Amino acid sequence: MTSLEDKVEESRKLGLQIVKESEEDRLMTLSVGPQHPGSGHFRFIIKLDGDYIVYCDPDPGYVHRGEEKMCEYRNVIQNIPHLERPVIHDSNNVTYSYSLAIEELVGIEVPRRGQFIRAIASELNRQVYTLYWLAIYGIFLGHSTMFMWPTGDRELFIDLLEALTGARVTHAFNIPGGVRNDMPDGFKDRCIRQVRYFEKRLKEYEDIFYNNPLFRQRTEQVGVLSKEDAAKLGVTGSVVRASGIPYDIRKAEPYDIYNEIDFKVQYMKSGDSYARSYVPFLDMKESCHIIEDLLDKMPESGEVRAKLQPNPKGPPGEAYRRVESGRGALGYYVVSDGTPKPYRVKISVGSFRNILALPYLLVGQKLADMPAIYWSLNYWPVEADR
Amino acid sequence: MSSEKKQEKPAKAANSSSKPSTTAKPPVPARPTAPVAAKPPAPAAAPPVKKEPEPPAFEKGLADQIRKKFGESTRILFIRPLRIKVQVDPKDIVEVATFLRDSMGFDHAESVAGTDYPKDNQIEVIYHLGSYTRDDLAAHVIALATRTTRDDAHLPTLINVYKSVEYHERETFEMLGVYFDGHPRNDRFLLPEDWADIPPLRKDFRIKGR
């Protein structure tokens, strides 16, 4: 009935000290990151009104290294080792679309066995990345077991990749023309054994984490991104698939031998943080089938790498190629001027596209929901900065 | 959903390959040879073939739609199947982008890239547009390109057409110094706050020591 001003006036008469707060006094600015253990090398500034977030401004760039500029100074093969730095946990996928773009520009045909090994390495590496992401999501929400388990099981795939490529994390395995080396003896059996073990573990993950009532309460109906808004914001990967758009580059525009592999695009319709965290889990499950299918259909022998000229170069032109990485579509736009060095390389990464949804989703939510929303966006700060 | 997509692909391929046999005109036999020739003889024969490859029927249909609407103001290049590049003047870009979104179903931008061409004294800004809503466009990426002068680099923003370009345009602004008229924030994003040099992706910016 009575307005706030009247109440203040009334209280003065009574000798009380009730003061109406101005908006500037009421809002609190909070800087999340870049030192925050969960945020990664990334900061976002939020303003709080009580418990609610009313403003959010992402501030990336703490690990910007100028990868695109560096590409202009090296020839196409020399670019491989530094291009995988933005996401060392997913290094095969980062170099995959680059290799595809260079192959298109130079006109290289990759041998069939090489294409299979590439796809296997890409799937294994996607598992490594997703497990790492899941581990951080677990600890971000205070679930320590979900930090320990994926970190431990990640070693399964790291060991496989070590056997395959010789390096644990940064493999520099994909190169224009195929892969660096053939599979070691006994790799197929070992791979199948470990993948089957991992499938059993996934069931346990579901029991302890995804079916955990506390986890579900914290994520369900939190930060809902509708299908229309997901398309408008141009988000990608698990974020767009969690909003009911079954878009996966492996299916939409199959590269190498993916059109021969039988798999389903995993997606959900609710668009909340739970869906965004569950879709990567479903992807991991599907990836296990893809790996077995790939190993099954792979030719027994053959070349893994096309023979290249020293300093390969193609005619002037441009190429835009994409692959499905752990964080969604990963596109390379490469312009060639006919010299061995690329004239311009633009990397369009999933993280940079997904972070556009962060202010959109956070504003209006409670601060306690911030971790559940932020990390469900599948954002890798180093990749976004390039 | 996915099985539907899978069925469509072979149907499309069969359609384009069966076309030459049904219409037995003289120029038609050249069509099947062109895409085949573009791949294997890479070292020697690629350059002349790659210049003007014959587009598949679907891409041709897309291009004809744009041509019919805008006529001479756009230039359409076929880079390869599934990739079309549309070159427009800066004054037309908002109109063309609106048409691509509303009438053709390209609903989001995947990437915005700027390329510096000091020899022409120009900067090219290229938008790669994709579609989530139309299944038959899922594999297609249309490249919308425009050019501005290096000395006074500014272009109209596409943020009112494609919300998804917001951060990409901001990045292009700081990396190439292209000012986007109408963009709410033409300011620092990835570079350090104390960056005091020319935009680093311009060709006259050299990495020290190289």
Topology summary:
The complex is a heterodimer of chains A (386) and B (210).
Chain A (H helix, E strand, L loop, with lengths): L3 H10 L9 H4 E6 L10 E7 L2 E8 L7 H5 L7 H5 L7 H16 L5 H29 L3 H22 L8 E2 L2 E2 L7 H24 L2 H7 L7 H7 L4 H5 L6 H4 L20 H25 L19 E9 L2 E9 L7 E5 L1 H5 L2 H6 L7 H7 L4 H5 L1
Antiparallel strand pairs in A: 1-2, 2-3, 4-5, 6-7, 7-8
Chain B lengths: L1 H21 L7 H9 L3 H10 L5 H14 L3 E7 L2 E6 L4 H10 L5 E10 L4 E9 L10 E9 L4 E3 L9 H11 L2 E3 L29
Parallel strand pairs in B: 2-5, 6-7
Antiparallel strand pairs in B: 1-2, 3-4, 4-5
Spatial ordering of strands, largest sheet of chain B: 1-2-5-4-3
CATH superfamily of the largest domain in chain B: NADH:ubiquinone oxidoreductase Nqo5 subunit
CATH architecture of the largest domain in chain B: 2-Layer Sandwich
Q: Which CATH top level class of the largest domain in chain B fits?
A: Alpha Beta
The CATH topology annotation of chain A reads as Cytochrome-c3 Hydrogenase, chain B
The CATH superfamily title of chain A: Cytochrome-c3 Hydrogenase, chain B
Give the number of domains of chain B: 2
How many beta-strand elements of chain B? 7
Poorly predicted regions of chain A: none
Count of alpha/pi helices of chain B: 6
Shape of chain B: globular
Biggest pleated-sheet summary of chain B: 5 strands, mixed
Fraction of helical residues of chain A:
40-55%
Instruction: Decide which structural class fits the backbone of chain B.
Output: alpha/beta
The residue ranges of chain B in which pLDDT falls below 50 over 5 or more consecutive positions are 1-50
| Strand residues, percent of chain A | 5-15%
